[in-house]
Amino acid sequence: MTHDDRLFLITGATGKTGSVTADLLLRRGHRVRAMVRRDDHRSRALAAAGAEVVHGDLLDLDSVTAALDGVSGAYFVYPIREGLLDATVNFAQAATETGVRSVVGMSQISARREAKSHAARQHWLAERLLDRTGLLTTHLRPTFFAEWLSTWWELRDGEGHLRLPFGEGRHAPIAAADQGRVIAAVLADPEPHDGAVYPLHGPVELDHHEIAAAIAATLGIPVHYEPIGVEEFAASMTHRGFPAHLVQHLSNVAIDYRDGVFAGTNDHVEKIGGRAPQSVGQFVLENKAAFDTSGPNFVPAP
After folding, report:
1. Where does 114-158 show beta strands of DSSP type E?
2. pLDDT tens string 61-109
3. At residue 2, does pLDDT exceed 80?
4. In what order do the strands lie in the sheet with 197-200?
5. Longest dimension (CA), the chain
6. Which of 21, 62, 164, 199 has the least C-beta neighbours within 10 A?
7. What is the C-alpha separation between 101 and 78, in angstroms, rounded?
8. Sheet of 159-164: strands edge to edge?
């Protein structure tokens, strides 16, 4: 366990990657300030673990400035919703004013200038904005999270179903826990990673038929992947009340996925985070309860 006096701010501290990062830093003896939007069981658990919990909103410059006061390094993450560029401007200005030294930014693998997804292009612009600050800056670009598998999962008549618009495209699902190890490592030692853009992947690239087979082998039940059209996918999300910004993003990255944008593997997780990333089977085994019922977003069969 380390005992340096640096303070790290974790935005999105109750989210998938933020909560893992905060926990890892605390376990390693670091000081953590956890920025949250509301008080709930997750924020109370962070406080019980030793984090300083502050309430704030990345769209509020004053609350971001207060949260960054005295901070050495920060993890910056914003959900797929309107406001990313405003949040990035607020963060960059507040970090500059308060003397923050480094930032790890959560981007996405589809971030690029020519992206058709508004959110993906905004992530690329947010990266460029942070690059223009005086901060030591590292950008993470994960492929689809392994957590997506349970989110879009349907359990019907004792069998699993994944109805998704990904055709025969491939990716190596990356668990939030593995990303958290990378974030924590870069925050603790930012200099070697300054200016780096790291795509993050799981260990094995698979198509969704192979993903379904890996889930089936772990759960011991039949699991089926059914490719569907982007239009059906978008209609289902709209019916469930997804914001238009998110529907536009997911519809366009589904096309990116088919075109190979999300494919690939590398050893960044193991080299930086210190441990090989989880396979699909390992992820499912560690999160079996999440597959006991249908996920909240599954696309029902007609």
Report:
1. 136-142, 154-156
2. 999 999 999 999 999 999 999 999 999 999 999 999 999 999 999 999 9
3. no
4. 52-55, 31-36, 7-10, 73-76, 102-106, 136-142, 197-200
5. 57
6. 62
7. 20
8. 154-156, 159-164, 223-227
